Please model this.
Amino acid sequence: DTGVSQNPRHKITKRGQNVTFRCDPISEHNRLYWYRQTLGQGPEFLTYFQNEAQLEKSRLLSDRFSAERPKGSFSTLEIQRTEQGDSAMYLCASSLSVKTSYGYTFGSGTRLTVV
Amino acid sequence: TQLLEQSPQFLSIQEGENLTVYCNSSSVFSSLQWYRQEPGEGPVLLVTVVTGGEVKKLKRLTFQFGDARKDSSLHITAAQPGDTGLYLCAGGAGGTSYGKLTFGQGTILTVHP
Model:
């Protein structure tokens, strides 16, 4: 297994455009998480899935953000009408629900820059 | 809302020195994890502690979970330039949010040769 894969690694977009990021978790992991991290800060929780069900969504997440995990495999995170404040590293992680004490495996992230 | 406060935020030391990073909260966590993150990469898990008072050692790194499961510390002995990075503590939630992690703001460690 090659770990958690995120694409693209970098994305530069103009304000007002829509962007979509993809995350491919470790195949046997049924939990998938999205976090956002700004420079010099720890990751902030956005949302997570168990299989295809979205179990929790942060109140920080405006209605411009949507995430899906069809068939409980890969996940996509879409941001509509991007704003400069959306510029951040978007991290995806996966875990086994019964082994969460084993920690997350993170991907390398997608760095979004909104100009 | 569960919050984790890490201190110090920045640490700049010489090779061979010892250091301790602290992670404190007013909330009880089901588990506490420490991660290390390199620039441009995702965090990598170092250790998980789940029992109050638990101590774990990973080579020159010693991790401790407070008795009340509200705080933790990371101690590095004889730091090396390869230890440079962002260190993050993360607390595991319980109940309906089981598995969700709350991260501290991180400690940026620089070890000079």
